[in-house]
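Backbone shapes recur. Consider a single case.
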Amino acid sequence: MDIEKVTEQVERQNTTIKQIMAELEKVIVGQKRLIENLMIGLLCNGHLLLEGLPGLAKTTAIKTLAATINTSFQRIQFTPDLLPADILGTQVFRPDTGRFEIRKGPIFHNIILADEINRAPAKVQSALLEAMQEYQVTIGQETFKLGKPFMVLATQNPIEQEGTYPLPEAQTDRFMLKLKVGYPSEAEEKEIMKRVYDGVTEVSCSATEFSAIEAAREVADKIHMEDKVTDYIIKIVQATRDSKQTGLDIAHLISYGASPRASIYLGKTAKAHALINSRAYVTPQDVKYMAPAVLRHRVILSYEAEAEGVTSDDIVSMLLERIEVP
């Protein structure tokens, strides 16, 4: 497709994107990277996992994102006693008809906030697998398609916190991005206090029609990506499986590298990042910017890495430094 035509479409869609991001900034103080990544998740129709200590506005960020789009929203509080049926729904016997009927659960909404997802055991977390991958839910003998859009935005407290269960690898791999939420600066904390006292919440956000998001998604798919950028993405992902090719001796720190989903998502999110920055083409900088969020939960560390205090973010930054930028 003609790059000039795509550039025109990018500029047109950028108005919608900037509008949604401005609404998010009304409630979320600072956290520029988090806001950008929430927008990228929305443009790529990907599920997001937000990790941070309690009280860092993870839930507020997700509720605000949901408030900026005119779709249905449901918050599910994950607890140790939650059952899969509490999320998906169940068959209920009706004595008057002598039949079972299906009562759908809260998963049948467009945007799902899975709050503190790692407070529920693996059986409950696994209830989301089919919904997140196939966009459908099976209850008893019946399978139901989920509506569009369908996004799971989950929050979790770091695993060191008491009363948490680690997410299974199959579950974490279905999240397109894992975003880390950090502490605010002094000035940001002062602004947070001011906005809370002034009663600023997600209710004050104006909503954008979902059709406008769909139009932006179509343009994101048209963003041009050179073969050499695609090769760069593949080199990064391959290096998580075999680091010797980069000349780094870190194989002992990695138990498992990233799956092919990482390559797919890194390409998609790099395109969305280019769109947010008003470009009709992907640069290696887009790839570098998105790599930590796409890879940090897909690089499984060894016991040695944990003993040495090495994080998956450290490994990703080491690889990015070593791999030649095209």
